[in-house]
Amino acid sequence: MAITNIAAYAHLSDADIEALGFELDAIRSDIEESLGKNDAAYIRRTIRFQRTLDVVARLVIGCSRSRAGWVLGTASLAAAKCVENMEISHNVLHGQWDWMNDPEIHSSTWDWDMVGVSSQWRYSHNYRHHVFNNVLGMDEDLGFGVIRVTRDQRWQPQHLLQPLRNLLLASIFEWGIALHGIHSERDRLMPDAGKVAEARAALVGKIASQTVKDYVLFPAMSRSRWRRTLAADVVANLMRNLWTYVVIFCGHFPDGAEKFTEDVLEHETRAEWYLRQMLGSANFKAGPLLAFSSGNLCYQIEHHLFPDLPSNRYAQIAVRVRALCDKYDLPYTTGSLVHQYLLTLRTINKLALPDRFLVATSDDAPETASERKFSAAATSVARLGGPIVGLRTALRARARRTHLGRAVTHPRNGPGD
User: Fold this and answer.
1) Between 226-252 and 67-83, two packed helices, what is the crossing angle to 10 degrees?
2) Does the structure show a pLDDT above 60 at 116?
3) What is the pLDDT of residues 330-363, one digit of tens each?
4) To the nearest whole percent, how much of the chain has pLDDT over 90?
5) pLDDT tens across 257-271, in order?
6) Spatial distance between the Cα atoms of 336 and 290, rounded to a whole number of angstroms
7) In whole angstroms, what is the distance from residue 205 CA to residue 40 CA?
8) Cα 214 to Cα 113: distance, rounded to the nearest angstrom
9) Could you tell me which residues come within 8 angstroms of residue 46 by beta carbon, excluding any fewer than 6 positions away?
10) CB hemisphere CA count around 62 (13 angstroms)
11) Please, which contacts does 153-156 make with residues 24 or more away whose CB atoms are closer than 8 Å?
């Protein structure tokens, strides 16, 4: 099963967790107090860059006559769409720039370049996902309702198709997000049928306007070269969908991004909420360019700790969060983008199979773990002073015991055998 007792799994006392929460609150306070004109200039500069890139890309697509020109223009348009979706819209809709009091860059007024309705996404993502991150039965982003990513989700014959579902979801990710948003909105508004109908009408209207803009208006502006522009829009949207999918999945489903039962929510303190975000998220390593193109969601741990702090500060925050992981002996789950995606892909393909074909237990699998993987003695947090000995040390000790156990069970032949 998933984690039911965060303190036991993390090998931390209640006092340790509260102290961790206090230090994370201090990070938030420091960042909030230091926000100013440089941060505001950053988001305005990013918006100008994205819009300029979009216009230049469309001019190259429409004016060039070579195949190379079309490829360059389409790649630039895809890049512009990725920046708009990840570094701008996602973060603006989180309220990261609401402190500027700029009505044009505010979570309540911003509309993104996708078929989903922004307000519906804010509920399904900012509330259902971020507040209840990786809690079974509460976080609807856990597999997005179509992919089994933990053994706590009961296997059904339809899961045999999830490798194909995964490919389909990646290619139409914006449509998946739109349908996911209306599903959450419907659950929130029920049983008020009138409001549910209004939400559905809003989605239909957004789909219509987005489709006309991308696949009718821009191609029509190209006149006789409309096919060239239409193809570019289709490919750019596909590339944006694939990139967004990879970034999101690498932050939530590789090994080390833990899952939790609803038991953890009972009397959950702010400090315990922080700890759940740290244990339920994963980063990937990125330089400045990759970080920018991913909306700084390479810092998914930091984003889940402080979803409404500006993304341009995540690299700065990450230094302090990683230091806290060292201090409290907690794992800081990260790896290369390729590595994190391959782990995610392995989980998706593996959990397509019935549990009887899986080797590890439901308490000790790479993608599904709980406090029951440790012995009663190992989960004790009692100590007499000294440094904190927490989850990271416990995981390493258990890995060593497992390795030694395998060595005893399957000894290697010595040179004289």
Assistant:
1) 40
2) yes
3) 999 999 999 999 999 999 999 999 999 998 888 8
4) 79
5) 999 999 999 999 999
6) 11
7) 32
8) 10
9) 83, 87, 88
10) 14
11) 153/351, 155/351, 155/353, 155/354, 155/355
- 408 to each of 171, 365, 373, 404, 417, how far by Cα in Å? 47, 21, 20, 6, 16
Plot region of 268 (φ>0 → left; ψ -120 to 50 → alpha; else → beta): beta
Query: Is residue 76 helix, strand or coil?
Result: helix
Taking the C-alpha atoms of 272, 153, 121 and 285 in order, what is their torsion angle to the nearest 10 degrees? 70
Check whether the bond before 191 is cis (ω within 30° of 0).
yes
Q: What is the pLDDT of residue 416?
A: 45
Q: Are 53 and 80 in contact (CB under 8 A)?
A: yes
Strand runs labelled E in 5-141: none
For the chain, how are helix, strand and coil distributed in percent, rounded to 5? 65, 0, 30
CA atoms within 13 A on the CB side of 313: 26
Strand, helix or coil at 220? helix
Q: Is 197 exposed, middle or buried (0-12, 13-18, 19+ CB in 10 A)?
A: exposed
- C-alpha gyration radius of the chain: 23
CA 384 to chain centre: 39
Question: DSSP letter string over 130-148?
Answer: HHTTTBTTT-TTSGGGTS-
Q: Which residue has the higher pLDDT, 223 or 381?
A: 223
**Strand ranges inside 246-317, DSSP E:** none
Q: How far apart are CA 225 and CA 286, in angstroms?
A: 39
Exposed (0-12), middle (13-18) or buried (19+): which is 231, by Cβ within 10 Å? middle
Query: Using the 8-state DSSP alphabet, how is residue 371 labeled?
Result: G
